[in-house]
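Reposting from the mailing list since nobody answered there.

I have sequence plus structure tokens for a pair of proteins and want to know whether others read the tokens the same way I do. The first protein:
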Amino acid sequence: MVDNQCTAGPVKAYIMSDLLKKFDFDNTNDYVKLTLAIVGFYVGMFYLEYVDTEYSLWLTWFLTPLIVTFLLPAVIIVLIYISSIIFHLYRLYRMRVVDGVQNDWRQAARLAVCALWDAHGWLWHGYDIRGLENIPDGPCLLIYYHGALPIDMYYLNARLFLFKRRLMYTVADRFMFKIPGWSSLLEGLCVIPGTVQTCAGVLRAGNSLAISPGGVYEAQFGDHYYRLNWKSRIGFAKVAQEAKVPIVPMFTRNVREAFRTVGWLRGVCLRLYAATRVPLAPVYGGFPVKLVTHLGEPIPYDGALTPEQLQRKVASAIEKLIEEHQRVPGNILLALTERIYEMPKKRKYSKPVNGACQNGLQKEKEDSPCGECDKDKTNSVVMDRTTLSNVDLCEVTDIPV
């Protein structure tokens, strides 16, 4: 370190004199080049003289957990592309691979992909499902809370197909169909960009369908307080009323502790989302927390209910699941501890923790409107409703592959 400081003066003088000889001061462009060269020279000398190697190693060690936190979500993207490759391989070599094993190459590919996701859920998150008996044998509409990454839907669909040979259709945002390499996977797993008519047709054909009313908006701008961000979205209620099917509410404990979005960029991401309709909020996490999916009792079809009333009823059912099974606010360390020892909630809240008006409509409790709607609205992230006025169902819901 002492030797570097002693020899720095002559070295600087020699390099600077050499630099000055190479420039033509009559040429204006050379002034710019000279400025850049001098700045680069002094920055380099600064690092040469003042940056300690041990400090650099310490800084790298210190930042490693932060880097890993943002890299772990990429594992999910890698798994999605592996699933897509599996579908491509089965499609290309279906006559060789599937012959004698499965009559339908898509069925064989689904089994391989679902086995991959079920293994990941079991090993990394200790994934479990409770209330599976609440899913009826016939068609039904599954409504769930959307995490930053909806991995709970990946795991649920995988387990349903592996152990019950039941394939559930899902609704996805249109941007997912534009991602290179995903088309075969989305088609094979029956992921659709649904409108009200398409979704109702799927249910009338005897299939089950999953929808998240909050969609990518709830994924990006939700937090560990687990508030519903449905606003005035009632498309799923119209689907259920038109198809005359029951609705099964769903919530996965600790889904926000597994993956989270960066909160301090929320304002910028909100403006970008309103302009582009593309989710750009950075996601971090990938923590191996305990994930448990809770399926509530089915809400039967009732033709006397309006879509708005049905929306409030389903929102209340999901908020009840959150109140019963989720600590609010969520805690990553406690969620990690639950992999070893499951700690029940110590107390129940007298009223929904998520606020009575997060879905944008006043809840009816004993036929009286909620008096704190205005307060909840001011505390939540509110999008300009004019940007959502011409958006169909598939653009305000996001169901994963």
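The second protein, same order (residues first, tokens after):
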Amino acid sequence: KKEVLYNTNHHGHHHQTMKNNNSNNSHSKQQQDLKQQETSPTNSHITSLDSRFNQTLRNVQGLLKGRSFPGKVLITRRSDPPDGAILGSPVASRSPSEIDSPPDKHMDDPNEDEVHINKPNASTSGNKLKPSMSNPEDRSKEAPRFVMGARATDTARLMKFTKVLGGTTVILDKLRELAWSGVPPYLRPNVWRLLLGYAPPNSDRREGVLRRKRIEYFDCVAQYYDISDNERTDEEITMLRQIAVDCPRTVPDVTFFQQAAVQKSLERILYTWAIRHPASGYVQGINDLATPFLVVFLSEHLEGNPAKISDVEADCYWCLSKLLDGMQDHYTFAQPGIQRLVFKLKELVRRIDEPVAKHIDEQGLEFLQFAFRWFNCLLIREIPFHLVTRLWDTYLAEGDALPDFLVYIFASFLLTWSDKLLKLDFQEMVMFLQHLPTNNWSHQELEMVLSRAFMWHTMFDSCPNHLAT
């Protein structure tokens, strides 16, 4: 049953078993079937699904090319030289860690213009902002259709973002739908503030609200942080010292976070948040959750925005607060929210790929041993940092539904290595899951993880009993 081709008409249509040993004929027939399914009137109901599902459907169709699904999708690493140019939006930028990381690699499939996995607007923002306008001469001449298709898609998406953001009142549902597949770097600060509810949708009120909230933050800093230890309780002193120890350890492979000023900002943010949220206080891992906000809001300052550098810190504090408001029981005593989601993850993996779930269980490995950190730090420690802001576009677009959707993302992430896991014993599996081979990941691998997660969520969310607690 592992060799089951997931038919794109999964709503009510049958699955086909791949029995033909003639791989060439079978591969050709599957491509023809996919095209017929896209155009056939009998499948017109697909177009009625929301745009994210249709985009996901095209992503999966383009990358699977007849591979078994779900749970057995193989991502082929490209060994050919990468293109010298990265498809750029009007203001393309790179994150602090992206300077030394490999550029995105494009699949040179003739149908690539229809598969928008490497979205040019999903690149990240950081403290090293370099214009990277597209140069047609630098592009691969073997895939001109992909370049044209990607440019058209990028332009169309930019126009949609501009239209949604340009109104007197931003319609958040439309913004979430757009942001789910990635936000152009130069729009990301404003989009994130809106998605988190920190900035109001009404443009007339926005500037005044942000100004008041920034003043409020620094009033809190003066009240709680800028005081002597004589005015703190023993618990507060201990907490502040723990934060001071953790800040230098935060994203240690990114130079940006090793700067003294950045660490001091992070320390103020975390301590102020912990004092104002006594039910949880500071929990190790929250320091990681502040880092995407620092990078994104600092990029706005470095682009020449007249905003003060202090606004970066205030915005980071309020957005971190908004994010954690939706998952408060993840960081209270014994972290029950995370334990509940780890249980759901185990059940979901069992439903999607029973052999892997059974093997993990037979080896005596508990999901809590490796997945706890995933939920605690939202995968920031598991993937290259230059992919984090793209991942967080999807996180923030999910809004209040994020905790439950994390289960699907992490199931997809784990099952990326399903075949590998089946060959490992307990000790090997522990070591592998603690040091996953994601260093060379590009946006393609991340988009595939998100595509599978959305597909499985669409398939299983209407059958909640499989995740009953």
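Reply #1 (J.P.):
I read it the same way you do. Confidence is low (pLDDT under 50) at residues 1-24, 37-50, 60-152.
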